[in-house]
Structure prediction request, 210 residues.
Amino acid sequence: MDSYYNTINLTSLANNPSKLKINDNHKMITYDIKDLYANIPVNKTIEIAKNQLLKNNDKQKTKQIITILKTILEQNYFSYQDTLYHPKKGIAMGSPILGTMAELFLQYIENMHIKQILDSKNIIFYTIYMDDILVIYDTTCAAPDSIQNYINHIHSSLQFSPTYENNAQINFLDLHIIKKKPIWKLTCTENLLPLTSPSTTYPSTPWSIN
Prediction:
């Protein structure tokens, strides 16, 4: 499944919006997905995985992989006060496939729902890193409340907590983003992205990084 909306590192975040035509009607919002890993719907994610596997594998191989995947995902137990619990949803923290399953589920949601509002131009930019999202929207086409209402009804397992720009500024990951004519200025507050990320060389316009 395509990861078109993913921010891989600071370079990609700086490059992606470089062709946007930004004006005073455009505003920024960041979203945090509340308790993402504890709320991933396991059965739905397995269904998504099966459909993706069938695109490049025969039914027998797909069945074998899905059987293994179910075994791994269903071994989700924890103990509390000498009692064992088996959650109805979510994936065990620390599981080596946690990130892959979360990304698979979110990419499905993005392709089914986020693409529609991007195509409508209500939102002109959307990117995600793990469970953090940056959105740039057009205030002449959409209100922040309507965006919030829409995304919080995409799936019952997902709830999004918004942070709105203040004085044309907002924080996203380790960046402080400033909307300032004629450019967008990104200030790196503290680089916590993986040390293996590609060289951080950024374009001068319309984004720059100090």
Q: What stands out?
A: The radius of gyration is 19 Å. Residues 188-210 have pLDDT under 50 and may be disordered. The chain is about 30% helix and 25% strand.
